[in-house]
Amino acid sequence: MDVSDLLTSAGINIAICVVLLSLYSILRKQPGNACVYFTRRLVSEPVRGTGDISCFERFVPSTGWIAKAWQATDEEILAVGGVDAVAFMRLVVFSIRVFIIAAVICLFIVLPVNYYGQDMQHKEIHSESLEVFTIGNVKEDSKWLWVHCLALYLISCSACVLLYSEYKSITKMRLAHITGSPPNPSHFTVLVRGVLGPRIIHTKDAERMYRMLKSIDPRFLDRSLPYCIPGGAAHPFMVPNLRADSVSSTTSMDRLQSSQRRKECPAAFVFFRTRYAALVAAQVLQSSNPMLWVTELAPEPHDVYWSNLSIPYKQVWLRKITTLIASVVFMFLFLLPVTFVQGLTQLEHLDQLSRRVPFLKGILKQEFIHRVVTGYLPSVILMLFLYAVPPTMMLFSAMEGNISRSQRKRSACIKVLYFTIWNVFFVNVLSGSIIRQLTVFSSFKDAPTQLARAVPTQATFFTTYVLSSGWASLSCEIMQPFPLICNFFRKFILRTKVEPSSCALTFPHHTEIPRLLLFVHIGFTCSIMAPLILPFLLVFFFLAFLIYRNQILNVYVRKYESGGEFWPIVHNSAIFSLLLTQVIALGVFGIKRSPVASGFIIPLILLTLLFNEYCRQRFSPVFKRRPAQILIEMDQQDEQLGRKEEIHNQIRSAYFQNPIISHQVSINSNLPLSRNTSHHQGDEDNLHGLKSLKPFRYI
Amino acid sequence: MDVSDLLTSAGINIAICVVLLSLYSILRKQPGNACVYFTRRLVSEPVRGTGDISCFERFVPSTGWIAKAWQATDEEILAVGGVDAVAFMRLVVFSIRVFIIAAVICLFIVLPVNYYGQDMQHKEIHSESLEVFTIGNVKEDSKWLWVHCLALYLISCSACVLLYSEYKSITKMRLAHITGSPPNPSHFTVLVRGVLGPRIIHTKDAERMYRMLKSIDPRFLDRSLPYCIPGGAAHPFMVPNLRADSVSSTTSMDRLQSSQRRKECPAAFVFFRTRYAALVAAQVLQSSNPMLWVTELAPEPHDVYWSNLSIPYKQVWLRKITTLIASVVFMFLFLLPVTFVQGLTQLEHLDQLSRRVPFLKGILKQEFIHRVVTGYLPSVILMLFLYAVPPTMMLFSAMEGNISRSQRKRSACIKVLYFTIWNVFFVNVLSGSIIRQLTVFSSFKDAPTQLARAVPTQATFFTTYVLSSGWASLSCEIMQPFPLICNFFRKFILRTKVEPSSCALTFPHHTEIPRLLLFVHIGFTCSIMAPLILPFLLVFFFLAFLIYRNQILNVYVRKYESGGEFWPIVHNSAIFSLLLTQVIALGVFGIKRSPVASGFIIPLILLTLLFNEYCRQRFSPVFKRRPAQILIEMDQQDEQLGRKEEIHNQIRSAYFQNPIISHQVSINSNLPLSRNTSHHQGDEDNLHGLKSLKPFRYI
Fold first, then answer.
1. Hey, are the CB atoms on A613 and B287 less than 8 Å from each other?
2. In this protein, which residues make up the domain named CSC1/OSCA1-like cytosolic (chains A, B) (predicted)?
């Protein structure tokens, strides 16, 4: 592939992007598509005029949305999308910053060294092969390799400084989110799993649990919460049996007896008077059998993944292992289409193809078609296959037994990330059959050399991948083709009225974070090897900045929030990419016989590892546990402002799976439970309705 | 090496053992050696007659000690040595049980299959090569390999069942130890690290810390504890400056001002009114900066490793990484002597040696000497080198920043374990230079095959290793040569009076556990490959049973207790050995071309992994954290019995590094602090005396 091939590919992709974005700017102005492109606005501000756009304006492409996305402040994003959205945008900003630095260093310093690396007659620039711009063009034993080494040092240092400041600011943001948010029921609630069944609860264990929770501080446990235990004992436990089939009119006594057969009931929510009491109950090992009375802080009410609460805690570890194995198997079986795609980029395969299927011969001979097939088609096929991955991983994560939606998404995010980096990066780099790849990775010693040989030669593929898959996926993201078609289908064929809240989606972190991180990974590993990729990558990230801001402001709703809990994934992934870049550089300098440069890389690797360990010690605990200090301050504030009663009334009604049942319980327990008015999740739970209501019990 | 060589070696070792044990039985009857062989008894029962042993009896070997060690009950061991000692003896009992089962299976079923594995003329039994008894003698494609497969299944299953029951009973014992022990100051105390200095404490952070701790429950925090903060504010903090140079007569005000320069003071003990309050304070993340106000449950007063408390918490992670790297480097550099030892067992090296050093030729020609050199000398050299390892690892663990002696010992135990298994097992199996070994381990795919080739051929070495190193180390353990010589030196040359408490040693878990686990490892891996090792191993474990019981009853004192916290190490190590055995079997069946047997091993490996994961979920949390349930019950009992005040008086005086200072503080703070009468650690802290007293402060 030469420079003009690359420019053709870039041209095609720029044209496609411009067309799609223009199409978007027209489609979004149609009032009928408002529930696709302005879902969030419709949900949060239900009464909204479409404005007085004239008929002519409606069909002319405009750039107003770009200006709006650009001008939005971080505060706006925070108000609209929460900490998760801001943290996601920080990832984009981090990428832009680090690759601007990398591009300046590599294009102005490394690229000339690569280009003039050999004593050769250079062709005209447009017919120059792309290989000339890679480190592969630097001759062995060259004195100029210290430039690459220095560039890698500069890139690593700036990446670490940026990563540190991002981690710090997101930690601060997370803490501010915990402190600043209105009283959150999840702060006061503990989810207990592995609860022993009612038969035992009523006699000995109830006493024990009562004492256990009481001893935290009797004042903290919310005595005013509904309770009903047969026999007249008045413990602060609430054990109504919320079985779907017994909701109608049986009394709580009847229902309790009918369920006494079961020995272990899966889970229960316990409410506390203060945040600190809940935190303590959640973090202490309660029982001497660690599989019983397992406590953790409850997720936000809308974040609870109800159907998984019915999984007995004893199964969870087995499920985790099973899904892990399943994901790994899936990861390796996926190699088959990827191997095929890889074959297409190699010319000899194309020749074979045209020999076997003679009528293709004429078509493939044409210069343009040939360029499309080698430069564009493989990425498209790969991209189409990759679309099936996130739903699969989401399914695995649901089977794993995660009890909250954000946890499920985070788990899926990690799986998709591993999957993408393995199947897009490593498989393409090592380009071969499953067996050959396993052979390469079974000998760790040769891995740097193998990678060092492969990465510069595969840089062309990655450049086209950024152009096609990267840019196209962003256009696809803003176009929202699937909701658009669904909307069209419902409106003009089914002719049903669509509620905006029913088709509102939450931000798909599990697909977008791995995508961005993959490009960060490609960017780092290719930076000093093949710097020509960096401008295209920068365009990708600028586009991503505008498009994701637009989507957060207009499309995705915020139903629950994890408070930036996915940031450690981003941080670790970036560090991994940096380390891999350094290892590959080590291999390259080895191949180029530059022991001095190799020697300088080893301290860089050690320093990066140390930096990562420091960040792990300094920041990551805050993402796993809430610090007591700020919760105590919040509790005290509440007390000073006299908001306690109000908060407790709120908590009572927060954790109900279904408004009908919440109402039913409020009648049965003879307590003035306020009816749950919150809207429910848009996906599967709502579809199942009452049916999905597994036997579930509150203490 | 043939059978008669092995018998010669066994004969030599039995003779040495008998001689040493007889010598021991004589030495222990000499009144002058009482402080070597009855240290524990002398410390706990200071007035003790030596009995009326006649002069004749004193110089005749006897077996009385064996009977006493055998008859001691588990309750006695528990009373004398605590849970740690019982758990250690359980390791020996577990080994005996599992290897009795393995010996029965392997000697009666596997050994005949190995012996008649090839169609060959067998020689007389005593001149038969030992190789004939290993799996190497079974011909390829043999139909009898399912016997080995079945034997491995039986051994794995019985090992897992035994491991499960041991883990369960030790967990129970640990819980009973926590519940049953007299009120322990460490249950009420939290060690806070990364405390901000006095300047800040006095203004804002003191308030915050006060609120933080108060909010647990104001009743729980021990208000009656000494406090002194300038300015008249009466917080429940105690900030006397315990600098060695300012102890004499300055007032607390003066001392405080002089130390206001420092910004972070390393650590502080905080006392609570109940165990549960301390537990909560220890397990919750206190500050939003996870490097500050780090809390953990305090170790027992005698367990505190005072000199490490002065290490700022910020350094700890860096120290851990540094010592890890140092240990790994040490592990690999140690290969040099081991490689030399390995060379000696190979005959051609001996021939070379005798050619270079001609006068050795005559000696080496002699049959007996030759046997000694090949069968005995290598193990002795290896053993001598290995003696230097535990002190080195102990040093590393001290540098790591562990704040308690038990933690330091556990950390050293893990390091020594890795070290021994790598340097004794793997290096001998893979027998070669450093580079060759790294090559083997850099290709993971071939590792099972490599190991499968090497282990059966190295079985001879391991058999002699068990005979020489194993048996001799036990004799050495009971003889206590080093204290014996020291005692002799002090008594007859220095002529000083020796206090028994000053030379009292705690049980050296960090050397004895890795030793036993190494033999467990060798036993498992050799069991179905070379079953002839098992009888010798059983003798070793029987001997260990008697000797360690004797030592626990008579020699080692119990200064502190970890409550069996090292058991997870034992469990994990046993599981690792089982898994490695299975992987080697996989390789062997692969070499022998028995795909069916190989196929059956894979589910066994998976099941073993699942079993381990289950145990990790079910038991290990109890070894890391104390369950709230039992602590709460204990608190309630104390309240019912009215022991609270008494306990609090005890705690006040428990955590003082030095009796003089404890006295000083009690005067300065005008509180009736009881003088600390407990005796102090026998090792380095005591030697440093006041000098080692680093700046240290109590809140």
1. no
2. 252-308
Q: Which residues pair with B196 in a beta bridge?
A: B264
Question: Model confidence at A214, in pLDDT bands (50, 70, 90)?
Answer: very low
3-state secondary structure A167-180: HHHHHHHHHHHHHH
- Does B291 touch chain A if contact means CB atoms closer than 8 Å? yes
Report in angstroms the alpha-carbon separations of B199 from A158, B206, B659: 36, 10, 28
Residue B173 distance to chain A (closest CA, Å): 12
- Largest Cα–Cα distance in chain B? 97
Angle between helices B471-479 and B481-488 (to 10 degrees): 30
Rounded CA-CA distance B9/B464 in Å is: 7
Phi, psi of B302 (to 5 degrees): -80, -10
How far, in Å, CA of B115 to CA of A439, rounded?
Answer: 37
Interchain CB distance below 8 Å, A287 and B627: yes
A195 forms beta bridges with A265
| ipTM score assigned to the predicted complex | 0.78
Contact check, Cβ <8 Å, B211/A285:
no
Cα(B367)–Cα(B375) distance, integer angstroms: 12
**Residue B436: which of A344, A181, B446, B499 has the closest Cα?**
B446
Q: Quick check: B290 and A622 CB within 8 A?
A: yes
**CB within 8 A of B558, min separation 6: which ones?**
B40, B80, B81, B82, B84, B85, B506, B507
pLDDT of residue B374: 67
Give the Cβ contact number of residue B133 at 10 Å. Answer: 25
Lowest-pLDDT range of A379-383, A452-456, B555-559: A379-383
Subunit contact A618:B283, Cβ cutoff 8 A:
no
CA nearest A444 in B: which residue? Answer: B442
Long-range residue pairs from B248-257, CB within 8 A, at least 24 positions apart, any chain: B251/B668, B252/B228, B252/B668, B252/B669, B256/B198, B256/B230
Rounded to an integer, what is the distance from CA B678 to the centroid of its chain? 25
Mean pLDDT of the region A352-368: 69
Nearest to B442 among A274, A445, A635 (CB): A445
CB A66 within 8 A of CB A546: yes
User: Which residue in chain B is spatially nearest to A320 when comparing CA positions?
Assistant: B613
Q: Give the residue from chain B lying closest to A209, CA to CA.
A: B629
Q: From edge to edge, which strands make up the β-sheet containing A294-297? A: A264-271, A189-196, A294-297
Closest by Cα among B323, B216, B343, B209 to B699: B209
Asked if B317 has any chain A CB less than 8 Å from its own CB, the reply is yes
Which of A346-360, B309-323, B547-561 shows the lowest per-residue confidence on average (mean pLDDT)?
Answer: A346-360
Q: How far is the alpha carbon of B33 from chain A, nearest alpha carbon, in Å?
A: 45
Rg (CA), chain B: 29
Measured between CA atoms, the residue of chain A closest to residue B218 is: A217
pLDDT in tens, B650-697: 787 777 765 444 444 433 333 332 233 233 333 333 323 222 223 333
Domain boundaries, chain A: 3-182+317-624
Pairing of strands A189-196, A264-271: antiparallel
**Exposure b/e, B509-546, CB count within 10 A at least 16 = b:** bbbbbbbbbbbbbbbbbbbbbbbbbbebbbbbbebbbb
Which residues of chain B make contact with A283, given a CB cutoff of 8 A? Answer: 283-285
From A187's Cα to the closest Cα of chain B, the distance in A is: 15
Q: For B72-191, where are the alpha helices, taking DSSP H only?
A: 74-105, 111-115, 145-180, 185-188
Which residues are paired to A296 by β-bridges? A191
Q: Which residue reads 């079997």 in tokens?
A: B585
Q: What is the mean pLDDT of residues B406-412?
A: 93
Contacts of B171 in chain A (CB under 8 A): 288
Are residues A242 and A657 in contact, defined by beta-carbon separation less than 8 angstroms? yes
Beta pairing class for A264-271 and A294-297: unpaired
